Amino acid sequence: MPHKANNNVLVELTSVSKSYGNLHPAVNAVNEVSFIVSRGERVALLGKSGSGKSTLLNMIAGLDRPTVGKICVAGRILSELSATAIADYRRECVGMIFQAYNLIPWRTALQNVELPMVFDRREKAERTAAAQEALAAVGLTERMGHRPSELSGGEQQRVAIARALMNGPELLLADEPTGNLDSSTAEDILESLRRFTENSQTATILVTHDEELAYRFSTRVLHMLDGRLDHDSGVGDV
Ligand SMILES: Nc1ncnc2c1ncn2[C@@H]1O[C@H](COP(=O)(O)OP(=O)(O)OP(=O)(O)O)[C@@H](O)[C@H]1O
């Protein structure tokens, strides 16, 4: 029977490994990892410090390349893309959020959110309106003119979410996004991320070492251990 393509598959990793062979002894940060993420899923990558979570996320983001193995996202095989095509992939397909927010300190919230649209064909006024709408969606209408140092940690992370969603990504990647936040602010942030996957054409992969958070947030938890995928549990399986 001919193989039937599953249009729901957004991310597919096949035997992905990453080693830092120039070090002695060589470090196998990620070892033979394979998994599929379908549209509509919220997946947590859970593991202890050093288990390879960030390395894996960065490879899916196109920030780093596997030593061996294949990563396919939204029909693009990342290892076959040129540097320009990887930049297009990152801009068109991926939104990324980090624990440290990574906002530009001398720019306002609005300017930070407008930033990913610099290559956009839209008029400046249209881009500003889109950024205002994104900030309103995360509840920051009153804070648009503030710089990061004038915002709380939770507000800064919401600006980072608005920025990550600005180009309409299919895949949202979040690396310990609530690591610096108190629990109630963290819950607000997770709620914003959950809303993203309400549109079933998208998916989120969230890296965390916090087991409770992983199960609370996601529909599926991938356990990493020493660079390997230890097990894969649907929420409700445990
Ligand atoms: N650029 C690098 N050069 C050499 N080794 C690296 C590099 N980046 C990561 N590693 C090593 O790869 C392994 C996995 O690191 P990684 O940051 O992916 O783990 P992690 O699970 O995200 O950890 P944490 O939760 O502490 O961020 C670690 O042993 C780390 O020391």
TrEMBL record:
Family: Belongs to the ABC transporter superfamily. Macrolide exporter (TC 3.A.1.122) family.
Assigned EC number: 3.6.3.-
Alphabetical UniProt keywords: ATP-binding, Hydrolase, Lipoprotein, Nucleotide-binding, Transport
Pfam families: ABC_tran (PF00005)
UniProt protein name: Lipoprotein-releasing system ATP-binding protein LolD
Keyword RNA-binding found: no
Organism: Gimesia fumaroli
Superkingdom as given in the UniProt entry: Bacteria
Gene that encodes the chain: lolD_4
GO CC field: membrane protein complex; plasma membrane
PANTHER family to which the protein is assigned, alphabetical: IMPORT ATP-BINDING PROTEIN
